[in-house]
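Loading example: each entry is read as two labelled lines plus one structure line.
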Amino acid sequence: MPGSPSEPYDLVVIGAGPAGLAGAVTAARLGLSVAVVDAAAQTGGQYFRHPAPGLGAARPQALHHDWPAFAELRGRFEASGAAHLAGHHVWAVTRQDEEMWSVHALVGEDSGAVGSGTGSAEVSGSPSGGGTGSDGEGRTHEGFSAERERPVRLQARAVLFATGAGERHLPFPGWTLPGVVGAGGAQAMLKSGLVLPGQRVVVAGSGPLLLAVASSLAAAGAHVPEVAEASGYLGYARRPRALAANPHKLLEAAVHGTALLRHRIPLRTRSAVTAVHGTDRVEAVTVSRLDRDWRALPGTGRRIACDALAVGHGLAPQTELATGLGCATRRTPDGTHALVLDGLQETSVPGLWAAGETGGTGGWQLARTEGELAGIAVAARLRALPALTRSRRVRDLARRRDRMRAFAEAMVAAHAPGPGWTAWLDDDTDVCRCEEVTAGSIRDAVTALGARDARTVKLLTRAGMGWCQGRMCGAAVACLAASGTAQGTVPPSADRRPLAVPVPLGALAALPEEPGHA
Amino acid sequence: MARTPADLVRAEPDPPFEITFDGRTVTALPGQSVAAALWAAGILAWRTTRHGGRPRGAFCGIGQCYDCLATVNGEPNRRACLVPARPGDAITTQEGHGHAGLAV
């Protein structure tokens, strides 16, 4: 059996979205043993998140106009022989020796996969070289709550990072009130749980995701009084070639635009929610007009009654597993960091590949294309068949990737946050949600104590030191820290976290010593 | 136009079941997370913060922000947006770090 748990895998793919599935299907077809690990119970990643079987959704495509393409990819994956290890939260990838990587994961109930009938617990119960805390029967050796969290280590000759992106958030007064949810978060809860955060949901922030979120919330029965987009859409017009080369993106925009019209949802550009009102939950928001630099124009605030706000400011690639291994990153046009990749999707560290949003946000079609390219490249390397990468198929895929990547870069540039957003904050606004660190404390750290970067601010104020490890506030803290420097804005530093998810000390203690690190 | 998310995807769920939130009965559907079941009941907050005692609930919806931590069957710090709801689950508002009973 390919990828039998007692043997190292040729390829471990991290992430079961379009990039990961395409990479796995391709590598398996070319003869590699492949496992796809993912935190969720089902394949699809964030974009193709869909209801659990128990919800009995007869028409999941109603929430995904690209559903047939995903169903086709999923079908090929299920027939590919690649293993699907659901409910695996990968917290680190380490180098075992010159030819082998270790992929460390926690399997547990927070994954949503326990008892879901995927059989993943059985598949992963005794992977490659031992080191688990459980005997697969639910009993524990190391004092873990077996039902809750169980460490697993997989061995891989190559790793494909298909870890996608997270939503980027910028704070504003009131953004911690219940009822304020991530735009992507509202979409995820709707797609997986068939629920809405409220009846009247304002959608705000920046980026093309907002249109998709507004149209699906409205289709699902919410009233969306308004979409407030902080940028204009003129940015696209400055890159006519990228637009002309990507007609499918124009079609997508037309689909969402038509949906907004049908639901009579006004789209206000150069506008942002600059305050949320309510004591224990959202009761209304203030939408203000912005200038070109995202400064709120005085006197333009309009109060809109609503019971929820879905807000997000674009996507940030999830690169922490790769950067932990030294993979180089580049700054994207909207100030996030993405992995630097070669023409065949390999990172700057040989043996580690990446596909999809980890190399810069660009949508699921780009992700699928990059996944296939990476799958071919990994097979060519491991099977010592370099000719595989010189095929016509590879040339076609590379051309398609370059075309879509050019559009993606133009798109994110059009939605790059302007420096003026920091003026939305009053001193009492919590910037770090976990540690409840206010904008005032961060400004003090910058102006009175001389902090010039996010790390110094963190050491002085605890901003970014909580449960989420700065995932929610990192971009904002970096911008506030940079406000004390001459250049005004510096990019947030690329994520470097030794552990990508919180790990119980018991799980670390139970790790076997690795040969190269004894 | 669909009236509810379930109408939109023509959902025919398996039979619903009951959980409790701070003692109040809440109906959940098989396959929903704890957070989804609470949202469906109009409940948006199930945690108070450690310093300000402010209410919080689900924010990122995908397990990254840890704002949705809840006490599930007596165990604190569970991510409600990931934990599947199960029949009879007792969800309680998590106060602070959730370990007040342990005096740590």
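The first strand of chain A starts at residue 9 and ends at 14.
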